[in-house]
Amino acid sequence: MTVEKKQRYRFSEAPIWELQRAYYEEKGLSAWNNDQVPQYITSNPMIGAAYAEMLFGFLQDRAAKGEHAETVNIVELGAGAGRLAFQVLHELCQLVDYAGIALPPFRYVMTDLAGSNVEAWRKHPALQTYIQRGMVDFARFDAVQDTELILAESGETISKGDLRQPLVIVANYFFDSIPQELLYVGGGRIHEADVIVEYPEHKDTLTTSDIVAGIAMNYELRHAPEYEADTYPYREIITLYREQLEDSHILFPEAGLACLERLNQLSQAGSVLLTADKGDHLLEYWRFLDPPELILHGGNSFSLTANYHAIQEVLEGQGALVLFPPHHYENINVGCMLHVDSPQDYVQTKLAYRRSVGRFGPDDFYSLKWWIDGYIDQMGLRQVLSFWRLGGYDAEFFMQSTKRISALLEDALDEEKEDLVRGIELMWSSYYVMEQQYDLALEAGLLLFEMERYGESKRFLEISVEQDQEETVSTVYYCLAICCFDLDLEEQAVEYLRQLVRLEPDHDEALALLSNFDPE
């Protein structure tokens, strides 16, 4: 595509950031529909459970310090579709109820830049119970500049020093998507890599998505002595880079670090960061690194790599305890950073991280799932059930497995069928409805129908019909009619048969059944 104009910017001030901001504000929650923007890897039941375990451990640690009265606020930055928040709340509430021990109360605050997202979350059916219990609130928050949180439900404003419990910050796919500085280390000196942006032709007539997809970027170096000055707040890590790196391009999270500092100041007791991203905490990753390339998501938005090494160095320099896996990650790096007094005392939090991330965590699960997806047709029912259970009864894996499960039902043992029914119920209880290319209630209802579990099948099939009656196929009405006959709900059965015949007037079986009730 020919270009219209070239302009030079500091990387953190390049128009790509404003275009991304405009895209999310324009699309709202629809940006995540059908995974246009990736969200599964950072919001599936497995990572939700891992975060819930660490939060449960943290609540225990605060209780052990005698801090029972004040509420622990958990603030998610860029909560996106809201799925992670729901998964965490669902699992954390189960852990608290199961343990039955005295813990401080907690409140999960979902934040985003787009006000339309805040309003959509407030109306989402899955969050209503938590809203009523005071366990969830919402705030519009600009991570680049805001210094306080104004909560939509309670009307409360959280300002500097207001909180007595440490603030817990959740940041998934966050640091890779906000402005970063692009530095170049060479010859012991620091340069900024300015970006030369080439816009697509006639950009004023293009959508935000088309502009993002059509932008070309090149880089020119400029010596930046301000990073080497004694007054620069992150001078120590810059000195480390000057001494240890050569011919290396560094994405430096100055805006992200400033955001963490502002949030940390909201509490008198510090903060805890739970975070997952494409980002490395090891210095070796950044050696001889080339300039970054935008990772486009469906041509609509982009992300880069997060510099967890810089965040770790800065927080450790301030006395924090930083936990990352002892092994290299493949898809997503999950960290826990305890920026509190005496962080080593938070034993339950550390143990939860070891169990839920260090030993086998969300990145391991995603790698395993990616491999298993190609072998579902070779799995037995016990293996399908075991992996489904490992993933917290994940709806995506269930949808990928329905054909295989159906093929195995004829030879399934009764106990396997019972486990399948139980799994469907548990899956549905933790399912966060989004616009997807599949109908979970329909697939669950049809499998239950195959197992002759007509009461459960009827409930799920009716949910499917209610969600999208215009797309309902005749098979669903036939199955519903059979369910109703088996449950002695004759009038409902006849009505479903009539709806079936309206869709398919020549359906012989439906007509034969109806003839017993409509002799005319």
Automatic annotation (TrEMBL):
Entry keyword annotation includes Transferase: yes
UniProt xrefs under Gene3D superfamilies: 3.40.50.12710, Tetratricopeptide repeat domain
Keyword Transferase recorded: yes
Entry keyword set: Methyltransferase, TPR repeat, Transferase
Protein name (record): Tetratricopeptide repeat protein
Swiss-Prot/TrEMBL TPR repeat ranges: 474-507
Pfam families: Methyltransf_28
Species name: Paenibacillus glycanilyticus
